[in-house]
Amino acid sequence: MMAHVELIYLPPGEEGNKQGVDDYLAAGHTVEDLLSLATTELRAQPSQGNSKPKQSETLVGYADDADLFRTSDGEAFAAFEVDGHKETWALKSERIRQWLLRRYYVGRGKPPSTQGLSEALATITAMAMFGGPERSVHIRVAKYEEHAMYLDLGNERWEAVEITVSGWKVVSSDQMPVTFVRKDNADGLTYPVSGGNIESLRRLLNVRNEEDFRLIVAWLIGAFNPEGPYPLLVLQGEQGSAKSTTVRVLRSVVDPAVGPSRAPPRNERDLAIAASGHWTPAFDNLSGVGSRLTDPRYGPLRQRIESAHAAVEAAAVEARRRVRLDEGR
What is the mean pLDDT of residues 145-165? Predict the structure, then answer.
């Protein structure tokens, strides 16, 4: 008994890319169209010498314009030019996908396939992990050696304030010896000007006396310390005494964010999420701190986040943060 065998040679897909049966059918062809390609002819594989580059290859080529690196905890990043300034984002962030999509669309007039984009991101990540240097990244505040610190202004130009014993100045992203990263809900600080006075803050706060005001000012100064230790700022008062307003005002001075206050953390994982993306987490209506949260809050925190979370892009978080607590009544 002899078997009858026929072969189907699928035509090239978009831009000459190799395609499978699912791609062929997804392009609008029918099963009848597929069967009509059946043949008993045995063909040689077509030469790839003059074929167009795959979409993923084109996307990977864009990484030549980026500075790829990794952190000590194994996260891959890319720094690249955007409208005359440099931005740094995690390779698994949505911003990197948007950057690649825009580059491809501008160059080709159409978006790449989902598969091509996924293949490119995986390849670029591998390039950063195994071919890029190791580098530290910072959120909002960073120390440089022993003579300078930097404060990320969080603006569209990715500028920062350089602070030394001799004064301060605003520097551009390519003038900084440190690397800042941001989360999508980070907000910008007010552009700094000379000649301010801390007394201007007093009229925005509902504090009882001079001693309380000095404690808040001391906390603010400590919040800009790049390395800690950090005091906790606990705000207590009756309902309607402007505790939440005080939190918003103080955070706007140090680390503003869209939606500045968070619900009380239920466990160490929630605390890690808050600490991973912000220099100054703020918790609203916190009536107490459980024993499970006490140690992480006062020392270095390492919390492995096992599942995906919209507010977290890092798999492992190690953070020391200055915290504000608004005690609810």
Answer: 93
Write out the DSSP string of 48-103. Answer: -TTPPPPHHHHHHHGGGGSEEEE-TTS-EEEEEEETTEEEEEETTSHHHHHHHHHH
Is residue 275 left, alpha or beta, with left meaning phi > 0 and alpha meaning psi from -120 to 50?
alpha
> What gap in Å lies between CA 311 and CA 329, rounded to an integer?
28
Question: Which two tokens mark 165?
Answer: 């014993």
Q: Are 126 and 119 in contact (CB under 8 A)?
A: no
What b/e string do you get for 223-256 counting C-beta neighbours within 10 Å, with b at 16 or more? Answer: bbeeeeebeebebeeeeeeebbebbbbbbeebbb
Token digits of residue 56: 């993923």
Residue among 16, 11, 20 nearest 58 (CA): 16
Given a contact cutoff of 8 angstroms between Cβ atoms, the answer to whether 215 and 283 are in contact is no
The SS3 of residue 168 is strand
Q: Where are the beta strands (DSSP E) in the chain?
A: 7-8, 38-39, 67-70, 76-82, 85-90, 141-144, 148-152, 160-164, 167-171, 233-235, 282-283, 301-304, 316-319, 324-326
Residue 229 preceded by cis peptide, ω within 30: yes
Backbone angles phi, psi at 93, to 5 degrees: -85, 160
Distance CA 153, CA 170 (A): 9
Across the chain, which distance is largest between two alpha carbons, in Å? 101
Decide if pLDDT at 322 tops 70.
no
With contact defined as beta carbons under 8 Å apart, do 10 and 22 qualify?
no
Pairing assessment for the beta strands 316-319 and 167-171 based on DSSP bridges: unpaired
Q: Which is it for strands 233-235 and 316-319: parallel, antiparallel or unpaired?
A: unpaired
| 8 Å CB contact between 140 and 154 | yes
Where residue 256 falls among pLDDT bands split at 50, 70, 90?
Answer: confident
Q: List pLDDT tens digits, range 60-101.
A: 999 999 999 999 989 999 999 999 999 999 999 999 999 999
Q: Is 195 left (phi over 0), alpha (psi -120 to 50) or beta?
A: left
Task: Report strand pairing: 282-283 vs 324-326.
Answer: parallel
